[in-house]
């Protein structure tokens, strides 16, 4: 009798779960995605980098876009070396020219996948349905435009040009100072991360790679001991080089690449080492997602169907770490995305469900929220993340106060640092080179260590830094 009772309860539970899963209505989509494959940005180029000129000609930090091309010496100026003599980047005599369109295509594919999966929900484009927001870098803004192009192809109702299967859709972005996807302008976070790296837990993790760091110092010709973000810069350098169709540099093999990825993950983990740091890194993003969900319940709201947020690796990896997701990549690859669904049952209860699009592997995987059902009741989820939501008492200092902790001349919120005049010892006026957007962001969280790594100590006086 007892066994029958247990079996009946089990059947009722399965039936209820099945009924609930089929009873849910999708009401809102929110997607945070990483930009597409790109060339190295300027701060990731190290001394004697054999591919510096190739990345420069393509455009530092720009998405890869050209199709594979011919073999030989007659290939166009925009092509890059795929195989052959890679001992020096300017040896352009005998090798295969090749560049993948993967950067553009990777982002376009995100839109295509979302369209295929949610076509019935999304319908044709209407300006109120979609909101796209990006960080203030060209690669993220370009990526957002590509996702939108894949998500909203031209239809009979929306077509405006017979020769162009594309709909112009506006996007939004803001500068680092006011962009909720950026957290590094906060001096508190920078200081806390440096302290976190010094804790016994993180020191033990880093000490496992002591010999590897010594090897890097020898090969790169720079003091590569664990300073701020240098291993991450090298990881990004190698990953971007591979995306460009170039062989790994001579100093790095598959084991080296794996070590760099693991060291980069340690860095990312140190950014969310406690709940206060997690507030700075992820709290604003969680707040934005929840605000959008609650706003969608208002009668006079715009009733948007989808929010798209074009971001970076640190946005995805810290979001995953804050939620204790398992079975996720060590580092989110180019074109990966987190999808957040808002669902509602017949009783009006709201749920959320999260999915991971893996990018290069092109898989859509479920993300299980710890200590919650799948899908997770919204009320339950809000209780689970309450301790890492961004509240006024945790906000950063004012811009004026924060500026005192930054290098002089570093104007947060400007797309790039401006050229500045400077008087040399002889009294003549010279121009200092301006930082690009990547350097501006990187200096905020890496400071002098990064500049010495990139330019060498002897060159610092020529930069608009101090």
Automatic annotation (TrEMBL):
GO terms for molecular function: acid phosphatase activity. Keywords: Disulfide bond, Glycoprotein, Hydrolase, Signal. InterPro entries: His_Pase_clade-2 (IPR000560), His_PPase_superfam (IPR029033), Histidine_acid_phosphatase (IPR050645). It comes from Trichogramma kaykai. It catalyses: a phosphate monoester + H2O = an alcohol + phosphate. Residues 1-17 form the signal peptide. Its EC number is 3.1.3.2. This is acid phosphatase. CDD domains: HP_HAP_like (cd07061). Belongs to the histidine acid phosphatase family. The keyword Ribosomal protein does not apply.
